[in-house]
Amino acid sequence: MSFNTFGRLFRFTTWGESHGPALGAVVDGCPPGLAISEADLQPFLDARRPGQSKFTTQRQEPDQVRILSGVFEGKTTGTPISLMIENVDQRSKDYSEVAVSYRPGHADYAYDAKYGFRDYRGGGRSSARETAARVAAGGVARLVIPEVTIRAWVSEIGGDAIDEDNFDFAQIRENPFFCPDAEAAKRWEKIVDEARLAGSSVGAVVECEATGVPAGWGAPLYAKLDSELASAMMSINAVKGVEIGDGFSAARLTGEQNADAMRPGNDGPSFLANHAGGIAGGISTGQPVRVRVAFKPTSSILTPVETITRSGEASEIRTKGRHDPCVGIRGVPVVEAMMALVLADQKLLQRGQCG
Amino acid sequence: MSFNTFGRLFRFTTWGESHGPALGAVVDGCPPGLAISEADLQPFLDARRPGQSKFTTQRQEPDQVRILSGVFEGKTTGTPISLMIENVDQRSKDYSEVAVSYRPGHADYAYDAKYGFRDYRGGGRSSARETAARVAAGGVARLVIPEVTIRAWVSEIGGDAIDEDNFDFAQIRENPFFCPDAEAAKRWEKIVDEARLAGSSVGAVVECEATGVPAGWGAPLYAKLDSELASAMMSINAVKGVEIGDGFSAARLTGEQNADAMRPGNDGPSFLANHAGGIAGGISTGQPVRVRVAFKPTSSILTPVETITRSGEASEIRTKGRHDPCVGIRGVPVVEAMMALVLADQKLLQRGQCG
Amino acid sequence: MSFNTFGRLFRFTTWGESHGPALGAVVDGCPPGLAISEADLQPFLDARRPGQSKFTTQRQEPDQVRILSGVFEGKTTGTPISLMIENVDQRSKDYSEVAVSYRPGHADYAYDAKYGFRDYRGGGRSSARETAARVAAGGVARLVIPEVTIRAWVSEIGGDAIDEDNFDFAQIRENPFFCPDAEAAKRWEKIVDEARLAGSSVGAVVECEATGVPAGWGAPLYAKLDSELASAMMSINAVKGVEIGDGFSAARLTGEQNADAMRPGNDGPSFLANHAGGIAGGISTGQPVRVRVAFKPTSSILTPVETITRSGEASEIRTKGRHDPCVGIRGVPVVEAMMALVLADQKLLQRGQCG
Amino acid sequence: MSFNTFGRLFRFTTWGESHGPALGAVVDGCPPGLAISEADLQPFLDARRPGQSKFTTQRQEPDQVRILSGVFEGKTTGTPISLMIENVDQRSKDYSEVAVSYRPGHADYAYDAKYGFRDYRGGGRSSARETAARVAAGGVARLVIPEVTIRAWVSEIGGDAIDEDNFDFAQIRENPFFCPDAEAAKRWEKIVDEARLAGSSVGAVVECEATGVPAGWGAPLYAKLDSELASAMMSINAVKGVEIGDGFSAARLTGEQNADAMRPGNDGPSFLANHAGGIAGGISTGQPVRVRVAFKPTSSILTPVETITRSGEASEIRTKGRHDPCVGIRGVPVVEAMMALVLADQKLLQRGQCG
């Protein structure tokens, strides 16, 4: 089974492998008449692009996005928008070891169990390179929701969390970690560099906030805004946990503590707190929508790990090659893209059924 | 917008409100020829049924499920299975306050923002009574996956977690909390009772494990088994967080710590750990599939909370009526049902596309 | 495989068998705030109801529809609307013959080939009784599109077509054939009665026109309005052909003859012809949407037909029991319902993506 | 609204415009392990390619298909297969007239009504060039159903039908009309050439037969095999009618005439006739699946037709440029492709739910 499409009205389908000629996305259902050019999408790809510091993989990819359809005279036409990004730096290395042995933590064994064989070059379809296609699609989604501001950051690396008192969003462009706390960024430099030099890796937590989401987006149950966001975030490579608002912390509060009390506001209620992360009963409340996402440490490490071969024999494997020592860092633009993609879809759905 | 269907090949659609005449589910895509009767489904409804201890809502509902279609001579026919559960104890109380004022933490304001008005009787569609329909559908799903054993339990209430060393699954039928740690169960009795007597509420964490899932179910990206589970669990009322395997804890591990090393086993690999919760690259590995789910405290509390009225004026509200002091407790059979519903769907998908 | 849901935003799912306790539909995605009661739906069910003349099956079913959810204080709430119709006249007859032998033209053999067995009582799920559920759902759909007027009629029975010069829509309530040509109705009385007395059956063509559909509903390709209508109409039992506008006759025209020329009109163009049936490039043009639907003769006939048994032996079968000698007649309200269901969906889709 | 995806398990999404840089399809859900190369797909594109005789458009397109993903070591991997076809001969002509005036019979007005504007170059998204992408996808679908043989032909042009007694499928490669009747082909040469020289156009009927389809594919109701085929065929540009088996002719038969009687056969029943076109109750019976499809005459004609401009003023338009005088001819490989795409999907669905 294979599903590479996400969304209900605003839908995108991604394709491509790490070492194929290109990868891309087809965005379908985009409203017509939106001004768009490749320059609108490129900054998001640039933010995700590898090789920009020693803390991310050294693969050099320009990640130039091309729009192949769906745009006429600088505007979306309402027909599918085909986005393509060529792969440039598929280094021809020796894949004989990974072809034969399963890398623990990777998709290798599961792919073989499912499909009978796999494209083992650079992880094939399971490579984080796929996220370039989402980020491009996310750039289109942002055009659909100009009323919404989305921003994400890394709030924790290797178990070391930022201090909320130091939170300064402007900082995220000042360090290679999308870190809003200048002091934490310094500490992370050491943490990530040590992991990198040791051939190890560390995990991270990414947070994302969308402001400007009006009350009323989402649905009561099987397409709850919480559900859609959880599905979207879990679809990112290496993600293993999702929280909406207080998430697991809410399970430790009492009903009184967790209630987001309301006072009369200018336009709808003025909330006194936002434990719910901007979503009640599956529907947005007009407060900022807040999500936290857990990225496991990169599974590619230089330390040898016990494993088995395709034929079931005992073996050992070290993952050579170029890798992110903390894959969560470059997850920031991906989390933002998924937030945009979910919200664009919800906006259209709400307009359709309750317009 | 409203989506009340879940699943791709094995699909179910639920309908019904807290105070309507009935609620139900239509299960579509169930394979033919499975032996089934109402008696196969009733035990799951009984486990979820309210009013069985002082720690859950006192609403008395027999929750008898009826099969209205799709079964002939005791076997599924492959056509849609309509399940209906009548509402019996819709107490005719005074809803004038909740009709006018929004209960913080509840769906009230969001529903009004979305739909313009709402069925305010007992929470209407946003009531946890809807989960009775899922539990019935989940009973059908279990018949599709006899090779899988699903069990869930409460692992934390009000911030008080079980001790893994005391874990004894047989205990969950010995206390009213689905608690596998007899000592924790005693402590929780006090915690929940205090919350109940104070008109307050507490949150909970539910864990679920599915054993017997073969390697190969799931999909690489937008229908990753992690994604499907996250979407399914987040669709349960009051859930605000989902973890697969180690979840957020994985973000605090190094790559070495997080690697689930493999040794040759009898049938596929023998894994030395299960940080990944049985899913790698979105696809099952043959290990137990493990999920943790965070339930916020019940939003219905007797303490007055600041709020506004439908017309935007300042007000205050206390939620009278019958409520669960810890809605997570009765979440256990619901989490199990959602696990079964996701896995039944994945089994059919795998058989269809890689059979 | 089994799909019992139709629609994209405005969706309905039907369930139920000919001889089960009930059948029904769940309508999901209906906009909130529409005034509705059972009395709004009943007239459509009454039009489809069997046993109203000697020209339709003598099964007596009151076909009273109940609304079980999704409505509060007389208005739709935006949550799923569950509709149920009880089966009353499931005559307990001897089904031993049909259980063993396949009726040619019926679904019997195909069901067995697909599902391994079947509910043979009265055709089970393949019975035309299922259409009662669609007609109820279609009644809800009509409320979504008050700007549209839908009317259908029988234009041909047993190869005998109406004379367009005699077309008087008011006539369709004056005869038991939904025939707008009083003279044809007289001829059909003879045709259908002869078929009935001979234990035979005849086919029919139903036409349907929707006026008031604004320009812009539909989609260019895989959800062309033509495609959606064709899929909807073909889903009706016994339908084997669908034409949009001139249909097959258009294949005999030249480009000049087929062009629907335009002149300036009051509100959009004034068209000089409607060969296209109100749809160009998959999208409505503002002209009346016109569809023609071919119903085969009822497969249930009293003449013995050569067949085989479940075990593959030569046999012969006559279909005893109560049947429509011309199943197309009662197809009229069903075709209208499917037109309404498609258009309601398209209205919401258009509002969502191009609103 | 815009839906450019077709299928349920075996799905494809097309993108691209007549005068953009390229067009393509993403095929998702293809089973893994199928041997595939571009050479497997090219023959189908070559059959559809324009400019091969004077009876089709003179646009010269090599229509070389490239596989960009989803294939490794010559086999499908189970991940999405991206197919791209570059546009080469987008002649830079003057589109000022068609930009301003609506061509009757074309999608021009409907697109403007829907989207507010349109890519008017060569028909943009509504151009029959889109079908190149489907034909490529159809080539992949054929690999999924090696047990099925699909063949289509033109059975009628300009109202002149073939003589079934002359039917010789080998003939279809001997004339430029995919005509299995050598004598009809001669007559059509005159008919189409006259239309071409007069700047006019003619319609056509295409028939398609799939043999080797086992009994049991399809579904009872809303995904009846008839419905899926009707939706698929109606999604082809210029198609306005679809018949399964006898189609409208069945409406003129009696029940006895229409019954496909059965005798014991070697493997399942031996049918004495195939009025049903190989589908009963929405499910294949094992007989050949037969479909007839009506193509209207090409709307592009040189005769001036009355129309209006975008600003609503009276005007007149002749469609200059390169066009097919009978668009139905090149519809043959497209109808075959859609048949393959539907059947591949049904095979996987059947395997999934009744396997």
Automatic annotation (TrEMBL), chains A, B, C, D:
Functional pathway: Metabolic intermediate biosynthesis; chorismate biosynthesis; chorismate from D-erythrose 4-phosphate and phosphoenolpyruvate: step 7/7
Gene3D superfamilies the record matches: Chorismate synthase AroC (3.60.150.10)
InterPro entries hit by this protein: Chorismate_synth, Chorismate_synth_AroC_sf, Chorismate_synthase_CS
CDD domains in alphabetical order: Chorismate_synthase (cd07304)
Record-listed FMN binding positions: R125, S126, S127, N237, A238, G281, K296, P297, T298, S299, S300, R322
Entry-linked Pfam families: Chorismate_synt (PF01264)
Protein name per UniProt: Chorismate synthase
UniProt organism field: Novosphingobium flavum
